[in-house]
Amino acid sequence: MMNMNVANPSDALLEDLSEEMIIDQPGTELTDIPASAPRRDLPAMMRKIPVTLTLEVGSARISLQDLMNIGPDSVVELDVLAGEPLVIKVNGTAIGRAEVVVAGENYGLKVIDLDGLNLDMMAP
Q: Given this model, what pLDDT does residue 41 score?
């Protein structure tokens, strides 16, 4: 389990990974590593890497002049029709589509399809 008491989540990830894997050090031969040392496969380690999941509503291409004229009551038309699914992105890369739903007091997403992510590679 990841140590949640560390201030930076990346530090906690590195701490957990360092406990579970052997880091290759110059001058260290495979025969120097004890047989009892833990070995982890790459997909298991990859599942612990934090990623940013975002939903993209749409986009608009406007001139700098139009951008300068945007104010509190401005409306910018997007390139997506109302009611169309939103794009799911992981670290900026599109992986599927979703709809916005209400989950308790927060917004959530309902996945419609995932087509840009190889989930089989990440399976335990």
A: 72
Number of structural domains (the chain) is: 2
User: Which residues, 6+ apart, have CB-to-CB distance to 77 below 8 Å?
Assistant: 60
Query: Does any domain span residue 75?
Result: yes
Distance, C-alpha 96 to centroid of its chain: 13
**For every residue of 4-72, which 3-state class applies, written as one string?**
CCCCCHHHHHHHHHHHHCCCCCCCCCHHHCCCCCCCCCHHHHHCCCCCCEEEECCCCCCCHHHHHCCCC
Would you say residue 46 lies in a domain?
A: no
Between residues 46 and 99, which one has the greater pLDDT? 99
The pLDDT-based confidence of 62 (bands split at 50, 70, 90) is: very high
What is the distance between the alpha carbons of residues 40 and 45, in angstroms, rounded to a whole number? 7
Residues 72 and 26 in one domain: no
Taking residue 10's Cβ as centre, other Cβ atoms within 10 Å add up to: 10
